[in-house]
Records
---
Amino acid sequence: MTTVVIADTRAGLEPALDELFAPFGGLAGAIPRDGRTVYVKPNAVHFTAHAHTDPAVLDALLAYLHDHGYRRLAVMESCTGGNFTRLVFKIAGYDRICRRHGARAVYLDEGPTVEVALRDGSRARISRHLHDEVVRRGEGAFYLSLPKLKTHTMTAVTLGVKNQQAFPAHASRMVYHSHDTLHRRLAALYDLVRPDFCIVEGLTAIAHGNLPLQAWLADYLVPMGVLIGGADTLAVDVVAARVLGYHLEEVEHLRLCAEWGLGESDLERIDVRGRPLAHFDRRLPDTQLRRFHPDVRWVVGRARACLEGCRGNSEAIQAMFYADYAQAAGSLRGGPWTLVCGSGFEEGDLDDLPGDLLVVGPCACAEVGAALRRGYPGRHVYLVPEHNDLMGITRYQARLMGVRPTDMVPASPLVAAWTLLQARLHGLNGRVPPIFG
């Protein structure tokens, strides 16, 4: 049977790691000490507090590996669109943790890329370093996935399988981020490269999806005090999903991985050790709180508006701006404005819209973008014609909300600018809004 451990962290992270690796012959049995580089892949999707793998767990894991004689260590990531990984590592403290333990920080959104074919028939550009070292196991690499225990508004959960969504370059992520394509894409990326071991960080689980909003953290954070790990990432995800309150059939990308034979998915055939699954009897919601600024008018198409793409990302970004930047200010600096997304607009839907307009997604841009520009002369009508253009959505919502990009970064503008310069000098290929406007 496949083994998955739910290790209790209340006695400390080192004992929890001992417990987690014990069924696999200890650390040396789980991760052979054969000179290969151990690549650790946390979920560092964004620098927002609690959005990423807890730095304390990354710190403890690297210390644990180093103390047991592993000297070739690397921490790799490519954050979400509209941000860049070097900045996320700096703000989250990952860069300092890497230096402390002699681990190399590998920013997958910097440097050359190569194109790969995926099982779902799509193609993606990924980091050449990732391709040569991890996908092809070039000089030898051990891949340890370290995601966070989170729900997700687009995929129900985001755990070990979805952790590979970081691998395509930003431009390669956008077109496959819709209701029809996202779930198969996630399964195909997992088929491309499966971790050798997976540890889900569950010190605190995240409810209500993607980014916990700092103004309402109490609604998002659920103390759990566990690490969930094993050598079969699909099995780990099935167990972690049950900890969050979800069954395999409710998580489409896990169901597809099971259908494609990419690991064990039957809980009856998974030996769950440590804390029993019966201790976790709460279902954490995966839906957004949907608290938006009252001066923003939403016009959503009646036929289609993908939560996996245009609508979901627009809502997440609008909630972030309202909760963490605009709520205290009350009224918007630039006045009311309108966001349009989806398809299937009927007569009257687009009449008497307030302020400037943001039209998000290929459906809305194709159906009503030109008509809105004709119908509202003298106003700004911003078009974001991709499914998942987080950079474009962030850039224009910031402008419409009266938020400067530097306001969004919890670091001085000089530090942010210097970090961006370093990333660009190293070949940044991520899509980042202009940092000063």
Note: The radius of gyration is 22 Å.
---
Amino acid sequence: MGRFRNDDLAYVLGKEDLMVRSLFFLTALIFIGCTGGYVYQNAQPLEFSDLQYPFPSKEISVNGIRISYIEQGSGDHTLLLVQGLASNGGFWRYNIGELAKRHRVLAVDLPGYGKSSKGIYPYTMSFYADVLSQLLKQLGIEQVTYVGHSMGGQIGIVFSLNHTSQMEKLILVSPAGIESFSRGDGDWLKSVMTVDYVKKTTEDRMRANLALNFYSYDDKFEWMVEERARMAKAKDFEDFCYAVVRSVHGMLDGPTTKRLKDVSVPTLMIFGEKDGLIPNPILHGGSAADIATIGVSIIPNSTLTIVPSAGHMVMMERADMFNRVVLDWLR
């Protein structure tokens, strides 16, 4: 498929389809597409426990939940990398190695995702923050620099407020939790986002949704399409879909917009200049810079970096610049 720029998306997707996909304003990924046929329709199922990450993963039981995580590097400071909606710790593959040259790095699969347990959990932002807090305690880690992408950013805001003593610094990457949604907006989004809708996502729609996450989609990210298409045949795929849907509810029902002023740790905010998901293009419109400016004006002791020629997946699309910005800020 080569390179596909988000600017051209309207020529590929119909208006109604684009509106539906724009629901995923908060995603770190949501199920991935342009055109190209059903390449993986006959591929073998991929069980979540068999997901292939570029780094070995470990497991630990936290509050009775099996949590999978990647651990690399060493140093006086620990970076906790937290995924966005519908993704997993493997989505930090372009960042872990470079960041681990100077720091200890943990990339976590949140409950419901990746190799971690799936079940009937609350999937609220506070639930995730509490699990991460207990994880750090069990690993004997007193403080971290928390790095959260999209939904992981909103979880990070809650973590910084509920578990302040465990957070040294906060890095928000294309974060949810800054853009404000009315009750009507939230009710509409929740009514459309159902388990059945997620389960029936076709492979072509997967690629189209992926294009929304990037400014310039490239074939090197095709591994995400294969992973998601084969995961759809996994035994506990419906549990994963449930986690995605309930996580969307958790974001909408636990807004953090009015709590930003209470964040007390040094904060770095990173946005892709061409983020096509934040702000929501149908409900709100505007640019990522608009949301970023609001966030940095409210959060005390915060710094903003806007990365050019990058979309929502800024840590993938411009990995070299992202890694350099993070390391320079930490230094």
Note: DSSP finds 13 helices and ten strands in the chain.
